[in-house]
Each structure stands twice: as structure tokens, then as C-alpha cells.
Amino acid sequence: MKYTIGELIYFSPTGTTKRIVESIAEGFGSTSHRHLDATFSDISKNETFSDNEICMIGSPVYAGRLPSTFLSRISHINGNGRYAVLVVVYGNRDFEDALVELFDFAIAHNFKPIAAGAFIGEHSYSTSSFPLSQGRPDSIDSTKAIYFGSRIVAKVSSKNSDMVLMGTTIPGNRPYKPIPAILNVAPATDLELCTNCQTCVSVCPVHAISASNPAVSDDNECIRCSACIKKCPETARSMTDERIVEISKRLFNGCKDRKEPVTIV
Ligand SMILES: Cc1cc2nc3c(=O)[nH]c(=O)nc-3n(C[C@H](O)[C@H](O)[C@H](O)COP(=O)(O)O)c2cc1C
């Protein structure tokens, strides 16, 4: 059977996860896949997948785990025994238990994982004062993602019956690391710079920003993904809360060494 990539399923508030899964699909030679983008809404439980199509599932790493928003948005999907490629993207600190959590999700949802990888994207908390993995994925990352895609093609073309990955090959621990206490804060808006263009409102994955007054965000809804900060054309939004600034500073000082993607095929 000739396999193609059928769907890219992903959550990607600041776009790095989307770029990585697209590069992997490029390496696979895939041009006709569907995008099931869970960044803004749930993936329907009525999605159907055909036998010769491989599903790629991509997620950013939040605190060494998968974002709970993504997990709830894809909670209805059923792989019906289809092959899956699993990808996490992290900000050059660590991906900890995120890939193993994605593997367990895939098994529980009736997918058969055949390849997995952890790639690096610019950290959501990167700022001009504290740049963190800035500009990643860069051309080296894209080349590695494309190469990963080409290795998956070789694997599915090899007629090897041991296609499905063993859980023990995936880095990470069970039980997963606990999710840390949530800081209920949202980015602030500089009213001198804001032009009320509504970009922040449209890019917020959880609709936490008021359309009638974008300077008002719901601290409890905000998932601190930084989409509104990175996509504001006037650089009017920023994370001013001291605790988040402190995290950026700590990451800047502690995660300077460039990490490289890890792939399992
Ligand atoms: C709430 C939150 C927690 C994060 N936790 C981690 C982490 O534990 N390790 C890490 O290296 N990067 C972490 N990051 C950075 C993201 O994983 C990284 O920037 C990723 O590329 C974002 O994906 P996206 O561009 O698809 O949104 C975190 C980002 C956010 C917003």
C-alpha cells in the first residue's frame, strides 16, 4: 500500500509547531494533506481518516507537558487504527514528558505511532531583552524536519512489519511531571501604541481578549501562549507581570546552549 500524509492536526498559537509539521510533510513529499488546526476550535468527532493516510499530530510543549487546551480540543478524535507521526515543539529548555504524553494520547485514541520527534521553536516568552531560541525553527531545523519526513517515507515503503513504535523508545517519564500552579495573568496593552486593529482579538486561541476593548483580557481564560504579543503589528502587547519576566530571565540565563531535534523512526 502506498501511504500519504492525510492530515496535519496541530495546535500552534505562535506558528512554530505548524511550520515544523509542514516541513515534515514536505519531506514526506505530501502536497494534498488537510490541515485540522485546533488552535482556535475543537476538532470534530465526525472526522474520518482513510487507511492509506498517515496522520501527523503536532503540539507545543507547555511546562514539559501538552497544553490542556489542545488535549481537550482533540479529545474526540479516533484514529481507527491509522498510522500516526507524533511531534512536539519546545523552546530550547526541555520537552520532558510531552512526547510520551502524546504517544499515550495516540494509543488511547486508536492511532498506531510509527515515528516521533521533538523539535525546537522560538520560545513563546522570547523578548528583545531576553531572546530565547529566537528565529527557530531556522533553516537547519527545517532541513532536519524535511529529512525526518523522508525517513518516514522510507520506513513505510520498506514493508517492514515492525512499523509501530514501542512506548519504551519514547523519551519521558510516567507518571508525567505535575502541571505547575497556573499564574492567572494576561499580557498588558500599551494604550499609546494600540490602534485597536483587533489582530490580538483574532489570534487569541481562547478568545480571552475583549473585541470592544482589546486592552481588557480575561486573566482566567488566557493561556499565556504569547500569540497576541508576537502578532501585534504595533508591539503594543507585552507580558509585564514580574513573575513571567523572571521566568524569561531565568530561561535566558539557563538555556543558552542550542538544542537539536530528537527523532525516532
Ligand atoms: C505556557 C508555556 C509553557 C512553556 N513551557 C515550555 C517548556 O516546558 N519547555 C520549553 O522548552 N518550552 C516551553 N514553552 C515554549 C514553547 O514550547 C515553544 O515556544 C513552542 O515553539 C511554541 O509553539 P507554537 O509556536 O506552535 O505556539 C512554553 C510556552 C508556553 C506559552
Describe this structure in words.
The structure is a single chain. The protein is an alpha/beta fold and 265 residues long. It folds into two domains: 4-176 and 259-264, 3-Layer(aba) Sandwich (Rossmann fold); 188-240, Alpha-Beta Plaits (2-Layer Sandwich), CATH 3.30.70. Helices cover 27% and strands 17% of the residues. It contains seven helices and eight strands; from the N terminus they run βαββαβαβαβααβαβ. The strands form two sheets. It has a six-stranded mixed sheet with strand order 2-1-3-4-5-8, with helices on both faces. A two-stranded antiparallel ribbon has the order 6-7. Helix 1 (16-28) packs across helix 4. The two termini are 19 Å apart. The model has no long low-confidence stretch (mean pLDDT 95). The chain binds flavin mononucleotide.
Could you name the key traits of this structure?
265 residues; alpha/beta; Rossmann fold; Alpha-Beta Plaits; 2 domains; 6-stranded mixed β-sheet; 8 strands; globular
